[in-house]
């Protein structure tokens, strides 16, 4: 049993120094205080509710608080014995008796609502089927949404190639273009189409490069071929793998 330090009222389930009403009244205007005081208050935990129907809230009833507990400290034992009315054999005819019966009925009705009522097997199967159907639908929606997001990312992304054009002169690789040639292609494009367009971009950069023209003029270089059939890739040698020469005509069967 706890006692509020503000209103000096005792509550069996009070777990703080101030009751719910005193806490809500702090810092409120006079109009707001009147509204709060008109709201029903649980006699067990002191919390103020907007639509509390009985003397106890559902949490207090569920935790075992009884209506009789809320009057423990209002009277001493002798006063309770003097004020306890004789039990009535018939229907209650006094106002206090009617109020007491109403409180007991409300408390019992709340307990009944809090108890989970058993369902018949047919309803249980229907609920299980409904739950499984909802879970399947949710999983399907998530998979579809994920596929759509992945497709959008794939469509909006591009593979970028940085191409450095070099000319081999007396065993030395000299830059034929001062800057790297940037080329990009979508991941969904065919490899042959991507390589073909990349070679067109390299051919254009070579033709527009003054440095490439100057080197070709100085060393009597002929115009290089940018056809797929004439292009060869040389892989870089590593500790595990040797250098390898790969020709595009061996990769693409259509050539």
What features would you describe in this structure?
A hairpin with a 6-residue loop joins β1 and β2. Strands 1-2 form a two-stranded antiparallel ribbon. A two-stranded antiparallel ribbon has the order 3-6. The chain is built from nine helices and eight strands. The protein has 255 residues and is mainly α. 45% of the residues lie in helices and 11% in strands. It has three domains: 2-84 and 94-114, no CATH class; 118-156; 159-228, no CATH class. The longest helix has 36 residues, at 121-156. The N and C termini lie far apart (93 Å).
List the defining traits of the structure above.
two-stranded antiparallel sheet; mainly alpha; elongated; 255 residues; 3 domains; 9 helices
Spatial sequence of strands, sheet with the most strands: 1-2
Helix content: 40-55%
* Estimated structural class: mainly alpha
**Count of alpha and pi helical runs:** 9
The major beta sheet can be summarized as:
2 strands, antiparallel
Q: In angstroms, what separates the terminal alpha carbons? A: 93 Å
Count of spatially separate domains: 3
Order of helices and strands: EEHHHHHHEEEEHHEEH
């Amino acid at each position: 049993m706890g006692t509020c330090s503000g209103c000096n009222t005792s509550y069996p389930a009070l777990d703080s120094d101030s009751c719910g009403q005193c806490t809500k009244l702090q810092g409120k205007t006079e109009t707001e205080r009147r509204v709060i005081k008109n709201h029903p208050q649980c006699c067990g935990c002191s919390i103020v509710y907007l639509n509390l129907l009985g003397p106890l809230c559902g949490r207090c009833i569920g935790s075992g608080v009884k209506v009789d507990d809320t009057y423990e400290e209002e009277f001493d034992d002798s006063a309770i014995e003097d004020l306890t009315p004789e039990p009535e054999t018939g229907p209650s005819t006094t106002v206090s008796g009617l109020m007491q019966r109403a409180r007991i009925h409300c408390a019992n009705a709340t307990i009944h609502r809090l108890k989970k009522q058993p369902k018949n097997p047919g309803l249980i199967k229907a609920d299980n089927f409904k739950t499984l159907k909802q879970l399947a639908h949710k999983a399907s929606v998530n998979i579809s949404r994920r596929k759509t997001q992945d497709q959008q990312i794939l469509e909006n992304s591009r593979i970028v190639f940085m191409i450095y054009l070099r000319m081999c002169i007396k065993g030395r690789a000299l830059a034929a273009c001062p800057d790297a040639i940037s080329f990009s292609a979508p991941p969904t494009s065919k490899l042959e189409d991507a390589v073909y367009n990349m070679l067109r971009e390299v051919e254009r950069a070579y033709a527009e490069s003054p440095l490439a023209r100057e080197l070709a003029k100085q060393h009597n270089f002929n115009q290089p071929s940018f056809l797929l059939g004439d292009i060869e890739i040389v892989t870089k040698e590593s500790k595990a793998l040797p250098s390898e020469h790969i020709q595009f005509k061996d990769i693409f069967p259509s050539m």
